[in-house]
């Protein structure tokens, strides 16, 4: 952060009734003395330095916050706090003036007092030193790189010293009801758990609250409504419950100590919202979707239940998947959350005002829930990729321990309890491939088995799909003329793939490169290293690849073409793109992060042709001639933009309640779509002992 540093000769700065002591960062007016927080001190100093100018919000972003983007709410809160601090019984007038649509200005004339007992108005040649934007950027960039290098070395050293051990688990199923268990929420006392349960063969879920001491259970259910637990109040037995009926989502508060289980409506919600916490009788923390007009981007919010007022405390970039609330540390007033990026997740922490955001740890998997260990001042979470409990020390700011669980079942979600026990649910999901006939409007299984299948591609005589085996390895299942169907083609941790019929090549995308292989001989023909994390890839033609990468410098996604013959990458000017595909005559169809569909013509002109509907689960798209197909996870819509029909046509909404659509593709040469699906099946609720 840029710092305004006064000369050591400066004893104080006077303005209005106030006197600022730069050394102690305090102000006093002869009656009251107030200590300034670092951000407020920097903000005040910046206004004093620039008292002759109108200061824009962008000036504050670049020179006080020293970032490229700061949410307006954060600036509003800081300005409100500054004005509140500068108001006293003696200082009643305006100190910072607002200029509508322009910015702010310091209304009073500051006066410097030096230790040499000389007093004068603010001279230009003795202005407190502040780095010019460009110089400041270079300085802090170099400093940040140095610190990052040191942190990298430090973390690498600490990672090598992490205590990795294998822990045996004695599993016990604590509920024998047949059905699907999900969404475990642990009470802060660790005595009660709430979980979602859907009976086998039924379409609606209920919430069950279990006392882990007495083993008694209470069931909350409503006919025709899906219920799911969202969180607990920290100081009571009140449970927040999510109710979903006909795509309408609401949060209710249930008093479990009340015999009648009295319920109170809290707010409308998004079905994807996961965890929340009641930090007082009137205040909750939760994740809210729709940040910066991006339907799939979430941010952490603090909300007053009584008034409905709320403010955000995190500001994810448009190139991320957003922030999800995890845990509130009541003693330290810290908020822990995950920031989901392409290819990795960051464990983050901030204060309750959102002014001090820190990245603690990066991991390839998601962090769905965390537990706090007060004795060791650490947090832990379940790594469902490696089936391990990960411990992070808040004292050392590094991993302290990893416990690989030796157990019978694969877990999708687990809580680490303080009494050497684990609460978990076994994996309830299966991934399969279906096709959907656009003429008959019917689903049919394409590749369904006990193992997981992803992305089926049909290119002329070649057909392929990915299969993930129980040990986590991925295999390309390929058929076609001349293909060796006997020898397994193991493809590693592949992210995406495509086939080219004429050149008989396969395109594989990995987290740092893409590779082109001969379909028949499996020889590597080309390998291209990517500097930014990739999102998707495909063949535009036999020798031209198109794809999407995350551009951290621009803080948004970047579309590109790559010529395999010329070995040259071309970046495409598609603004805020989240998905795109080549269209015709050098044009492109793309969807931006706000859900608008655009046609980018070869002459550079852009036309808005549609706006997609709100996502239910996850957005996916497929293009066929003048028709764009969009899935929101439960439904499939068609947009016929070439005919000037910008409104979506619902072509199916008949998925089973336990099935969701992950992705959609065009089945080449047919009137069918291919669907990657995930289904929720029966599983178990497990209470396990560990031999720690």
UniProtKB/TrEMBL annotation:
Keyword S-adenosyl-L-methionine: no
One Pfam family in the UniProt entry: Trans_reg_C
Domain OmpR/PhoB-type: 10-108
Annotated DNA-binding residue span(s): 10-108
An MF annotation (GO) of this entry: DNA binding
InterPro entries on file: 6-blade_b-propeller_TolB-like, OmpR/PhoB-type_DNA-bd, Sig_transdc_resp-reg_C-effctor, WH-like_DNA-bd_sf
Record flagged with keyword Cell wall biogenesis/degradation: no
Highest taxon listed in the record's lineage: Bacteria
Protein name (Swiss-Prot/TrEMBL): Winged helix-turn-helix domain-containing protein
High-level lineage: Bacteria, Pseudomonadati, Pseudomonadota, Gammaproteobacteria, Alteromonadales
């Amino acid at each position: 952060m840029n710092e305004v540093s006064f000369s050591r000769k400066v004893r104080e700065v006077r303005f209005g009734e106030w006197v600022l002591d730069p050394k102690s960062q305090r102000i006093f007016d002869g009656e009251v003395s107030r200590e300034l927080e670092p951000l407020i001190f920097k903000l005040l100093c910046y206004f004093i330095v620039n008292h002759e100018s109108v200061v824009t919000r962008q000036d504050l972003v670049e020179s006080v916050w020293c970032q490229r983007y700061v949410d307006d709410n954060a600036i509003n809160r800081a300005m409100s706090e500054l004005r509140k601090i500068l108001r006293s019984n003696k200082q009643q007038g305006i100190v910072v003036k607002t200029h509508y649509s322009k910015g702010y200005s310091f209304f009073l004339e500051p006066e410097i007092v030096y230790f040499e007992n000389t007093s004068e108005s603010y001279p230009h040649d003795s202005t407190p030193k502040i780095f010019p934007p460009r110089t400041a950027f270079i300085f802090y960039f170099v400093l940040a790189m140095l610190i990052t290098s040191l942190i990298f070395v430090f973390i690498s050293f600490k990672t090598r010293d992490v205590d990795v051990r294998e822990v045996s688990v004695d599993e016990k199923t604590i509920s024998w009801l047949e059905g699907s268990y999900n969404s475990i929420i642990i009470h802060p006392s660790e005595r009660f758990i709430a979980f979602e349960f859907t009976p086998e063969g039924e379409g609606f879920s209920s919430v069950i609250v279990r006392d882990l001491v007495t083993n008694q259970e209470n069931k909350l259910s409503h006919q025709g409504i899906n219920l799911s637990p969202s969180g607990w109040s920290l100081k009571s037995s009140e449970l927040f419950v999510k109710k979903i009926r006909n795509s309408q989502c609401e949060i209710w508060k249930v008093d479990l100590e009340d015999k009648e289980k009295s319920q109170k409506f809290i707010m409308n919600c998004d079905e994807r919202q996961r965890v929340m916490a009641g930090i007082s009788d009137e205040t909750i923390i939760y994740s809210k979707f729709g940040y910066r007009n991006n339907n799939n981007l979430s941010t952490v919010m603090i909300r007053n239940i009584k008034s409905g007022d709320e403010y955000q405390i995190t500001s994810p970039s448009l190139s991320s998947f957003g922030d999800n609330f995890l845990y509130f540390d009541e003693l330290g007033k810290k908020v822990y959350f995950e920031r989901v990026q392409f290819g990795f997740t960051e464990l983050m922490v901030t204060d309750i005002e959102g002014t001090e955001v820190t990245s603690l740890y990066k991991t390839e998997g998601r962090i769905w829930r965390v537990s706090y260990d007060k004795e060791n001042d650490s947090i832990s979470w379940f790594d469902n990729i490696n089936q391990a409990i990960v411990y992070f020390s808040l004292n050392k700011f590094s991993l302290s321990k990893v416990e690989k669980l030796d157990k019978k079942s694969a877990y999708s979600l687990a809580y680490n309890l303080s009494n050497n026990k684990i609460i978990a649910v076994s994996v309830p999901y299966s991934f399969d491939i279906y096709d959907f006939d656009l003429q008959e409007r019917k689903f049919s299984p394409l590749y369904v088995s006990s193992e997981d299948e992803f992305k089926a591609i049909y290119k002329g005589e070649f057909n392929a799909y990915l299969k993930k085996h129980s040990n986590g390895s991925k295999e390309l299942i390929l058929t076609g003329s001349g293909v060796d169907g006997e020898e397994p083609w193991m493809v590693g941790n592949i992210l995406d793939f495509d086939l080219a019929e004429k050149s008989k090549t396969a395109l594989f995308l990995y987290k740092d490169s893409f590779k082109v292989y001969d379909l028949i001989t499996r020889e590597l023909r080309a390998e291209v290293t990517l500097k930014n994390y990739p999102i998707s890839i495909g063949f535009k033609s036999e020798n031209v690849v198109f794809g999407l990468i995350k551009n951290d410098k621009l803080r948004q996604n970047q579309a590109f073409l790559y010529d395999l013959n010329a070995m040259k990458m071309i970046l495409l000017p598609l603004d805020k793109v989240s998905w795109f595909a080549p269209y015709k005559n050098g044009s492109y169809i793309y969807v931006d992060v706000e859900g608008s569909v655009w046609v980018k013509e070869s002459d550079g002109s852009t036309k808005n042709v549609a706006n997609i509907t709100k996502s239910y689960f996850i957005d996916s798209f497929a293009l066929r001639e003048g028709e764009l197909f969009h899935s929101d996870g439960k439904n499939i819509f068609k947009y016929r933009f070439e005919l000037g029909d910008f409104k979506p046509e619902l072509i199916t909404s008949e998925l089973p309640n336990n099935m969701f659509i992950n992705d959609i593709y065009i089945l080449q040469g047919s009137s069918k779509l291919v669907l990657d699906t995930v289904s929720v099946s029966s599983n178990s609720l497990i209470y396990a002992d560990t031999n720690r």
